[in-house]
Amino acid sequence: MTTSRVPRPSPDGTRDDATHARLERENAQLRHAINSHATVDQVIGVLTAIHRLTPAAGFEVLREGVQHTNIKLHTVAESVIAWALGQPLPEPMVRQLDAAVQRRSRQQNAPDVEAG
Hints:
The protein is mostly helical. It is built from four helices and no strands. Helix 1 (about 15-50) packs across helix 2, helix 1 (about 15-50) crosses helix 3 and helix 2 runs antiparallel to helix 4. The longest helix is centred in the N-terminal third of the chain and has 35 residues, at about 15-50. The radius of gyration is 21 Å and the shape is elongated. The N and C termini lie far apart (about 60 Å). About 20% of the residues are buried.
């Protein structure tokens, strides 16, 4: 026996309108999630290349920028991509991302201290 979240078509080969609408919404949400994920990955690449950060540090810079500006992740990510393409970056993002880059750069470049 197999189970599926997607109901099987009715005997006449059609699906009810509610099921069709639900599947369309799920598809749209999945497409949006994939596009958002790709944009976030691109921003991490931009931050990594420009500021010579590790990918993990690039993600942390983005995360901190989002938290400290109280702007949604996709908005910050789209703004950073636009900035990489020559558009100005809004001032609150500039301040917060610069501060996050400075923190991460210091952490990344700090000499490792061995516990004794």
